[in-house]
Amino acid sequence: MQTRLLLTLATGIAVALASLASPPPPATAQAETMQLFNGKDLTNFYTWLVDHHYEDPNRVFTVVESVDGEPAIRVSGQGYGAFITKEPYENYRLSAEYRWGILTWGGRKDRSRDSGILVHCQGRDGNTGRDFNGPWMLSQECQVIEGGTGDFIPVSGTMEDGTRVSPSYTATVRADGNRLYYDPNGESRDVSGRQLWWYGRDPEWRDVIGFRGKNDVETPYPGWTKVEVICDGDSITHLVNGTVVNKVTNSSLAKGKIIFQSEGAELFYRNISITPLRR
User: Fold this and answer.
1) What are 30-48's pLDDT values in tens digits?
2) Are 152 and 171 in contact (CB under 8 A)?
3) Residue ranges per domain, the chain?
4) Most buried among 34, 52, 189, 257, by the most CB within 10 A?
5) Strand order in 168-176's β-sheet?
6) What is the tens place of the pLDDT at every residue in 161-170?
């Protein structure tokens, strides 16, 4: 009996030690993924508009019950501003789907439909204006525009003491005149304050409504396009419909809020989610 008891205890101890030595199974990506848009309202966001600031008298940002069968956030494009996450984030994969509407406004009425997703947004709201009445914040932008979705744009901002800051980054590039294109086999270059076009952007791109380049991976109007932004430490990668179209490293900004722009064109966003990266 004593021998049997000792064997049982030994076996139990061995199992316990084995369980301690083995790491627990990783949590599934689904368990970690947070739906920033809950399908009902803007709970995880607040809004900002030039002149109106935290008020939205023209209902630029609303939730639509069904667009192509699913709820979506409608951005009318009337007025420059954004809906912005209440919380800052770092080390994540952001995913969102968008489609263009039919309305365009003001100086962009006849120009290519334009918007953008800004990450690592820092400082006071509206700090893209020196008077803090600008539409956005110091950040790094994933451009959303007909023919140029996936471009990388450093967005300059103003600090509290009035200092103007231009974000910087490093990328492998191909130069064409004054333009820089992302090229994974190109020359590594440190860049400050300059736009980096996605690798296939049409060199004949024109700022006209409905423009579509010969190599565009954005879904043709009025279909839905999936955009993903992977923020891994100081690197930022842009994917459009599953294709890596741009990548930078050594970003001078590595954490902050996330902005979805209103920039003169109507569009809809759905399935906005964020997944922490395992580091």
Assistant:
1) 349 999 999 999 999 999 9
2) yes
3) 28-276
4) 257
5) 179-182, 168-176, 187-192
6) 999 999 999 9
The answer to whether 93 touches 228, Cβ cutoff 8 Å, is yes
**Cis amide leading into 222 (omega within 30):** yes
Distance CA 125, CA 73 (A): 21
Spatial separation of the C-alpha atoms in residues 56 and 61, rounded to whole Å: 8
Query: d(Cα 260, Cα 53) in Å, to the nearest integer?
Result: 15
How would you classify the pairing of strands 225-232 and 114-122?
Answer: unpaired
- With beta carbons less than 8 A apart as the criterion, state whether 123 and 157 touch: yes
Residue corresponding to tokens 């996605």: 198
* Distance between CA atoms of residues 191 and 163, nearest Å: 19
The helix/strand/coil state of 205 is coil
Flag whether the pTM goes above 0.85. yes
| CATH T-level assignment (fold) for domain 28-276 | Jelly Rolls (2.60.120)
> What one-letter code names the amino acid at 160?
E
